[in-house]
Write a structure and sequence with these properties.
There is one protein chain. By secondary structure, the protein is an alpha+beta fold. It has helices spanning 62-78, 94-103, 118-123, 169-175, 190-200, 230-239, 257-271, 286-292, 305-315, 349-360, 366-371, 380-383, 385-392, 400-409, 427-437, 439-442, 448-454, 456-463; strands spanning 52-59, 82-89, 110-113, 146-149, 152-157, 161-168, 202-203, 219-221, 298-302, 320-323, 333-336, 339-342, 416-418. It has two domains: 49-160 and 337-378, 3-Layer(aba) Sandwich (D-Maltodextrin-Binding Protein, domain 2); 162-335 and 417-463, 3-Layer(aba) Sandwich (D-Maltodextrin-Binding Protein, domain 2). The chain contains 18 helices and 13 strands. The chain has a six-stranded mixed β-sheet with strand order 2-1-3-12-5-4. Strands 6, 9, 10, 11 and 13 form a five-stranded mixed β-sheet that branches. α1 links the parallel β1 (52-59) and β2. α15 (427-437) packs antiparallel against α18. The chain is globular, with a radius of gyration of 24 Å. The relative contact order is 0.18. Residues 1-24 form the signal peptide. InterPro entries: Bact_solute-bd_prot1, SBP. It comes from Paenibacillus odorifer.
Length: 466
């Protein structure tokens, strides 16, 4: 899910440090018992019980807030105990505003929280344990979407998102090149991916990178682009047999040769293979700059792009498809999803959780799901063909069989690994530093090995919060 201006639609271009000053109140929140309520006198008429008011915060414009309030109003009308009020805060100010409210002990009851902030806020006692949120319910999200701290679930992602490969079908057809595979068991190796990218890369004279006379300074069409935002690069470290962290998130593994080699291969798409445009890993508009701009034949990025930008481009004539990622040694894609949390300062955790359970259900977020911005969180939408067709068989998506294989089935495959912010702390600091460290790698001024080795101690310190 993209961490951006609209919930579930973007990933950070630059990470902002999250620092919460002050602690949550150490108090037990209990619902008021009916026997504790003041009794009406014999001559007075009993007043209806006052509703519990819940404030739900979100990042977005006032217009986006109004849309979400419209959804909340349906919840408000569905029962007579809880009233939800939506508080929309501009994305640019969202975390700053939440930090200010936390310091003043004026946080909303519940709200959205950036992926890379969930575990950190948990360590600071700012989030409620939601382990019991779905007890007795058949609407519990996939386990892969649970944010955990010290073994306890502190949040669930509101949507399931994976990384995949997008491609321009017209460019492939014109070059008479077979489309990338939608099935995981047919996934391209990295070498096959690069070889295909060369066939789709053209200079102004129509030559390919492996042809004599090719001019790398006059490329008019690139064959590929692999998103190199720091968090997405973990895909290739893992896929090459390494990783950013150990499985439990306690140790840094980015200094291992396999991790470094995976990152260098991504850089070499531009530096040596000459099949990708220069990207310095700072802006989260990769699909807009590549597939939609018509300058690149295939590009990696998140599933949310179907709804956030590709629907519009499709309506304007873009003929695109989806495929599984290529692989180096192991087949890997990352899953993620922005979190809805219950803040520990709330006096009404039970009611806040009841709202979130309702709000996170597919039928109450159908516009986001059917548009392609969100993917469902319940397993049945991936395994029950009737539900899958209800989700995917609509004009907002590529053809059903292709999307089902490359996205729906892929999301349930062994290739899926959780993004690090589901289970380890300080990913903000780590990714910010890593993005800076790798800056000269993308332009060829240094190698991934030299850049990471020289800064390994600092990366380990960032991971530890120092």
């Amino acid at each position: 899910m993209k961490v951006g201006k609209a919930f579930g639609v973007g990933i950070l271009s630059t990470a902002l440090a999250l620092s919460v000053i002050g602690c949550a109140k150490d108090e037990t929140n209990t619902a008021t018992k009916a026997s504790d309520a003041p009794k009406a006198s014999e001559n007075a008429t009993s007043k209806p019980e006052e509703k519990v008011k819940i404030i739900y915060s979100m990042w977005g414009s006032a217009e986006e807030g109004n849309v979400t309030q419209g959804v909340a109003d349906k919840f408000n009308a569905s029962q007579d105990r809880i009233e939800v009020e939506v508080q929309a805060i501009p994305w640019e100010n969202y975390m700053t505003k939440l930090n200010t409210m936390a310091t003043a002990e004026q946080l909303p009851d519940t709200g959205m929280l950036r992926e890379d902030g969930v575990v950190q806020w948990s360590t600071q006692g700012m989030l409620n344990d939601v382990n019991t949120m779905y007890e007795g319910s058949d609407s519990k999200p996939l386990d892969s979407l649970a944010y955990k701290y010290q073994g306890k679930t502190v949040a669930y992602a509101a949507a399931n998102e994976i990384l995949l490969l997008y491609y321009n079908k017209d460019m492939f057809d014109k070059a008479n090149v077979p489309y990338p595979p939608a099935a995981l068991d047919q996934a391209w190796t990295w070498d096959e991916f690069v070889t295909t990218a060369k066939k789709l890369t053209l200079d102004k004279n129509g030559k390919h990178p492996d042809e004599s006379g090719f001019n790398e300074q006059s490329i008019v069409q690139f064959g590929a682009s692999v998103e190199n935002l720091p968090w997405q690069l973990e895909t290739w470290a893992l896929g090459n047999g390494g990783g950013f962290y150990s499985g439990d998130g306690t140790e840094v593994r980015i200094g291992e040769d396999a991790s470094i080699e995976g990152i260098q291969k991504v850089a070499d798409l531009y530096l040596k293979d000459h099949v990708a445009p220069l990207s310095v890993g700072q802006t989260d508009d990769g699909i807009q700059r590549t597939i939609i701009a018509g300058t690149v034949a295939m590009a990696t990025n998140g599933a949310w792009n179907v709804g956030t930008s590709l629907n519009t481009a499709k309506n304007e004539g873009l003929n695109y498809g989806v495929a599984v990622l290529p692989y180096m040694k192991d087949k890997v894609t990352l899953n993620t999803g922005g979190a809805n949390v219950v803040f520990s300062q709330t006096k009404h955790p039970k009611e806040a959780m009841e709202w979130l359970k309702w709000y996170n259900s597919e039928e109450n977020n159908w516009g986001l799901i059917s548009s392609g911005i969100w993917m469902p969180t319940l397993e049945k939408w991936y395994t029950d063909e009737t539900l899958t067709r209800k989700w995917v068989e609509n004009p907002n998506f590529p053809v059903y069989d292709e999307y089902k294989s490359a996205v729906v089935d892929y999301a349930q495959s062994p290739a899926v690994k959780p993004a690090a912010w589901f289970y380890t702390n300080h990913t903000t600091e780590f990714n910010t530093l890593l993005g800076s460290v790798l800056g000269d790698v993308w332009t060829g001024k240094t190698t991934a090995k030299d850049a990471i080795s020289k800064n390994l101690d600092a990366l380990k310190a960032a991971h530890s919060g120092n």
